[in-house]
TrEMBL record:
The keyword Metal-binding does not apply. GO terms for molecular function: endonuclease activity; exonuclease activity. The chain crosses the membrane at residues 16-39, 45-66, 73-95. Keywords: Endonuclease, Exonuclease, Hydrolase, Membrane, Nuclease, Transmembrane, Transmembrane helix. It comes from the Bacteria. Residues 110-316 form the Endonuclease/exonuclease/phosphatase domain. It comes from Kibdelosporangium aridum. This is Metal-dependent hydrolase, endonuclease/exonuclease/phosphatase family. The keyword Membrane applies. InterPro entries: Endo/exonu/phosph_ase_sf, Endo/exonuclease/phosphatase.
Length: 326
């Protein structure tokens, strides 16, 4: 009788090249996860990468599962564990937070980056009218854009203004349904960041500041970006003067620099409504869209609604939040 051939293994070993193809991005992911967990934003590349945390977290989860499938139990398990830890900071942004019970006036706030004045002024005012916006924060407000807004009839919708229009990306402004009393709470910055008290009927008059920090993903602005975020003011302790920071922060909630700002007494309107991953830039699909425009509110405010809308002519999307003041 001929000897029996040895039984083939039920599962063939994974080819070496496949393991290498999996291991290399896994090591890169672990390096990213370590930087993310340590709160490091040292240079433009790390700042840009941290902004992509929601995407990279999904990739990490996939790499971990693939590693376990290939029976790389230890390394695959480590990758999966780090991916789950990174995702744990992101997933809560999809869940609506508990709201404080407040009975103050309702206010609708909108932020719009005008892309160096290229946005469609008529479309912008259509959004303002449709959503009954009370206070509008504008970034990259050019003199030509002011003329476009005037021709479109902004005075009939938002009759009060505090504009610091400049050429290029430096200009900013506030427009409102109610009188504005200019304040000075921003330190020196790359772009204009005006602020004002909004004179509402009643005893509560919120203070709104336009935020537009330097882009940290550009090498010459990395240090400036960190400094400008660090210098943003804390929330006011006055119950009758809740403070709002509204605009283009050039940062996502994954950047520890922005989380530090939020921790000074604010809440992010999008995060509180479970829309913290809704992207605002770019308006297209590349680079991968992220949320860098924010409406930060005094933590005593209740967020009734938060939505994001396309703004023709701009590379950003406009964000609108309706809030109840304390």
């Amino acid at each position: 009788m001929a000897p029996k051939a040895p039984r083939a293994s039920a599962r063939q070993p994974v080819k070496t090249w496949i393991v290498v193809v999996w291991a290399v991005p896994s090591v890169v992911f672990l390096a990213f996860a370590a930087l993310r967990l340590l709160g490091v934003t040292g240079n433009r590349y790390i700042i840009a990468t941290v902004a992509l945390t929601p995407y990279i977290g999904v990739v990490g989860l996939a790499l971990g599962v693939v590693g376990l499938f290939m029976r790389r139990w230890i390394f695959g398990g480590i990758v999966l564990a780090f991916a789950m830890i990174a995702s744990a900071a992101v997933v809560p942004r999809l869940v609506t937070d508990d709201q404080p019970t407040v009975f103050g006036p309702q206010l609708t706030v909108m932020t719009a980056n005008l892309y160096v004045g290229r946005a469609d002024a008529v479309a912008l005012l259509d959004l303002v009218k449709q959503h009954n916006v009370d206070v509008l924060s504008l970034q990259e407000l050019s003199p030509a854009m002011v003329q476009d807004l005037d021709r479109a009839g902004i005075d009939r919708v938002l009759p009060y203004r505090l504009f610091e229009a400049q050429r290029g990306a430096s200009g900013s402004g506030l427009a409102a349904k109610f009188p504005l009393q200019q304040t000075q709470i921003a330190g020196p910055a790359t772009f204009a960041q005006p602020s004002a008290i909004v004179d509402l009927p009643g005893v509560v008059d919120p203070e709104v500041m336009v935020v537009h920090t330097a882009p940290g993903v550009e090498a010459q602005w990395t240090g400036t970006w960190k400094a400008e975020l660090a210098e943003l003011p804390s929330a006011s302790e006055r119950k009758d003067r809740p403070r709002m920071l509204v605009g283009d922060f050039n940062a996502t909630l994954d950047h520890p620099d922005l989380r530090d700002v939020v921790d000074r007494g604010y809440v992010d309107a999008a995060e509180r409504r479970g829309a913290g991953l809704t992207p605002t830039w770019p308006a297209g699909i590349w680079p991968p869209p992220v949320a860098i425009d924010h409406i930060l509110l005094d933590g005593r405010c209740a967020v009734l609604d938060y939505q994001v809308f396309d703004l023709p002519g701009s590379d950003h999307r406009a964000a609108v939040a309706s809030v109840n003041l304390p």
